[in-house]
Design goal:
homodimer; alpha/beta; Rossmann fold; nine-stranded mixed beta sheet; two-stranded antiparallel sheet; globular
């Protein structure tokens, strides 16, 4: 399998097996990993975990048990090789199943923290990746959708625990509406832009499972570039300094 | 009436009668005035218009007829003196009534554009302005609330017409949820911060009455200060350059 290569997020020390023919982790993954405030113990779920990049890397920050939930066999298998390579079989468990079946593997109201990089695009949105079904499923709402993702987060999380989600700003209103239906309240958001004067191209969301009314904090933006150069903040995140 | 003084928004040329004892227009008003994309003809409503500062100033940019809807008699009266002073009786009409009665004065589905600076604070939120009932009603949801405001916008607007709203970021999720219930879709938002590295303290929302799915643009922030100095962008808006 010559298309496999190893990569590391933000200097975490955890090596991630990637396969360019499938779906490699990208900037979204690194940003979400850095945005999340990691619980020190208990149970963490990486929902729609792909090759497990975020969940695996979190093992460098916590003693919590980490579950990687991924529908696609090829990606789950890749994550399993990374678990072995990093000697993390005691701390990280791969669950190769769809999120609609997640309660077959994990109890409701049992999870202390969730990270989730869900498919961003609706199944209707045009795609140039039809010849790559693994990537298509990772990016598009083909096998799951936003409502199902947020519902699963609601079911799994303990009361007052947090979920960290990376998403597209153009679907922010929809995200908030679906969250509200499930009593998941956004508490903190951060927009990511290429440059100061660009529209936002990503949004990072820290949400809490609570029946209380939320008070949302819109944090300073993360601006990736200063002219042609990575901004100092982006550099710190990417290099894990 | 020695507490009356005259002020101008952004070099519009329209003088606004203000009364410091009641409620004066402030930065929110100026920002909303500048954020709104003004229709050139038809009918505009300034909902919760206070002393009419935004609606009156818009007369400098459009030939549309402008309706100022304000519950509070003292503020409506002040707006009426400004209409006279600026010789705008043919273009601007003051409606001194609560927004729940707005259909007594204006037909549903008849308005081409709405600007609205609604009360930001719930009636429960603590206030230091209990000794100023006019200001309390302008700022707090005492006589109206978000649902009523958005409902009125839905009723008044023509299909595919825009409403421009200034609001608090900490209630953004609630705003989006209420909008969604009324088929008012946010199309474009801009956060306002004091400094680059501050949390947002205002959000400007451009929303459209439509049954279609929205695609939201999160525009570059408006950053008011660069150190101790007004930023060049803020200066342009405030000075109307």
């Amino acid at each position: 399998m010559s298309n496999i290569y190893k990569d590391v997020i933000s200097n975490s020390g955890i090596t991630i097996n990637q396969n360019k023919d499938l779906y490699s982790f990208n900037l979204d993954t690194i940003l979400l990993y850095n945005f999340a405030k990691v619980v020190k113990k208990g149970k963490i779920v990486d929902l729609c975990s792909g090759n497990g990049a975020i969940g695996l890397s979190l093992a460098s920050k916590t003693k919590a048990h980490i579950y990687l939930v991924e529908l696609q066999k090829e990606l789950s298998h890749l994550a399993e090789t990374s678990i072995l390579d990093n000697d993390l079989t005691d701390q990280v468990t791969s669950i190769n199943d769809g999120i609609k079946n997640v309660q077959r593997h994990l109890h409701h109201d049992s999870i202390d923290m969730i990270v989730c990089n869900p498919p961003y695009f609706t199944s209707k949105e045009s795609t140039h990746i039809k010849n790559n079904p693994v990537l298509a499923i990772a990016r598009h709402e083909i096998k799951t959708d936003l409502s199902e993702v947020i519902y699963s987060i609601k079911v799994l999380l303990k009361e007052n625990s947090h979920a960290y989600i990376v998403y597209r700003p153009d679907r922010l209103s929809e995200l908030f509406n679906v969250m509200s239906e499930q009593k998941i309240q956004p508490k903190r958001i951060k927009f990511v832009r290429s440059h100061n004067d660009d529209n936002a191209n990503l949004v990072l969301v820290d949400a809490i499972k609570t029946v209380k009314t939320a008070s949302l904090v819109v944090e300073p933006d993360l601006v990736m570039y200063n002219g042609d150069q990575l901004s100092s903040e982006a550099k710190k995140i990417i290099e894990g300094l």
